[in-house]
Amino acid sequence: MSKLKLKKLFIGAASMVFAAALALSAAACTDNNGNNGDNGNTGNTGDNEENSIYSFHDEFHGKAVDDSKWDYQEGDGTEYNNPGWGNNEEQYYRRENARVENDCLIITAQIEDEQTQEELGKKYTSSKLVTKDIFSQTYGRFEARIRVTEALEGIWPAFWLMPEDGVYGGWPRSGEIDIMELKGRLPGQASSAAHYKDGDANRYHSANYYFQEGTDITDFHVYALDWTPEYLAFSVDGVVYHTFEAEDWTTTPSTDVPPTETSPYDQDFFILLNFAIGGNFDGGRTPADEDMPVEMWVDYVRVYSLEYLQEQGEYVPGQQE
Ligand SMILES: [Ca+2]
C-alpha cells in the first residue's frame, strides 16, 4: 500500500546521537507558552528508523534540511507549466529560503532588492519543499506542527498532499488534499480542503477551524489528516472539524484508468510544505513592506500507515470517524 523509498538512514548508534541532539535542542522549538506540545509523551521519538512508528517523519533536529527526505520546487511555477503556481502567487521559490534551526524547519518569505526582483521577476522569495519521488503513501495519518511568526495580511502557508503519479489525469482529476491553509488576515482560523473532478466541474470540499480565544496561527498547532478508504478527517490539535466521506467524492478520469469507489483518493500522495505570498487564496492581498520578512516554522512532520492506526485502534474498518 505505501511506497516508501526513503533510505533507512538511522541505525544503532546513530539514534543515540539524535537522542542527545534532541535533549539539547528540544526546548528551542516552543510556542509562546513554553509548551513544546509533546504533552510529556516523548517515549518513542521514532528516530530509530528500524523500530519507527512512522512511515515517514522529520523532527528537524539537525542543522540543515535533510536532502534524503525533501526536494524543492523552485521558481515561479513557469518551469512546471504553472506560472504563479496556478494562483497568481507573487513569490519566487528558492531552496536558500529554507533552513533548519531551533529544532524546526524555517521558511522565510522576504522582499528582495530591486536587482534580484528584476532577475527573478518577482518581488518576494520563499521556499517550497516536497517529498515527490522520495516518499508517498496511500491512506494513514499525516500531521505537522506549524506556526507563523506574524499573521501578516496576504501570507499563505500550506501543508498539503498531491498525487505522486496522477493516474486519473491532470488537476484536479487525480485529487489534491490540503491539510492546512492559513490566511494571515484571519489569524483565528485555519482551513482544509479536498479537490476533485466531477464531470466537467472542478469541485472541492472544505471547512474552517476556529481557534479558541487566546491562541492563533502564530502559536504552534498540530494540523492532521486521517485518510482511510472511507473518509478524510481533518483535525487541529486532535479536534476533528472537517470530515469528507468517500460516498460523497468522485472523480472523472481523463485517462484509461478506471475509477474505483474511493478514487481519486486511493493512490499514493506526496507531501508539500510551502509559504506563499499573495495570490488568489485571499484576493491578491500582500503584506505591508515594513512588516517583512516573515517565517513559517515547522516543528515536525509525521506520517503513520493505516495499518498502524488500525493496530492502535484509531481506525476501525467500517466504523466512520
Ligand atoms: Ca522539531
Characteristic terms for this protein:
Jelly Rolls, 10-stranded mixed sheet, mainly beta, 7-stranded antiparallel sheet, binds calcium ion, disordered N terminus, about 325 residues, 19 strands
Itemize the secondary structure elements and their pairings.
Elements: E1 3-4, H1 13-25, E2 56-58, E3 71-72, E4 91-93, E5 98-101, E6 104-111, H2 114-120, E7 124-126, E8 128-130, E9 135-136, E10 140-148, E11 155-163, E12 176-181, E13 189-198, E14 201-210, E15 221-227, E16 231-236, E17 239-245, E18 269-277, E19 294-304, H3 306-311
Parallel strand pairs: 4-7
Antiparallel strand pairs: 1-9, 2-19, 3-8, 5-6, 6-7, 6-19, 8-18, 10-15, 10-19, 11-12, 11-18, 12-13, 13-14, 15-16, 16-17
The structure holds calcium ion.
Calcium ion is lined by residues 29, 59-60, 103-104, 299-300.
Question: What can you tell me about this protein's structure?
Answer:
8% of the residues lie in helices and 36% in strands. The protein has 321 residues and is mainly beta. It has one domain: Jelly Rolls, CATH 2.60.120.200. The strands form 3 sheets. Strands 2, 4, 5, 6, 7, 10, 15, 16, 17 and 19 form a 10-stranded mixed sheet that branches. It has a 7-stranded antiparallel sheet with strand order 3-8-18-11-12-13-14, with no helix packed on it. The longest helix has 13 residues, at 13-25. The chain is globular and about 55 Å long. It starts with a strand and ends in a 10-residue tail after the last helix. The site of calcium ion has 7 residues, from β19.
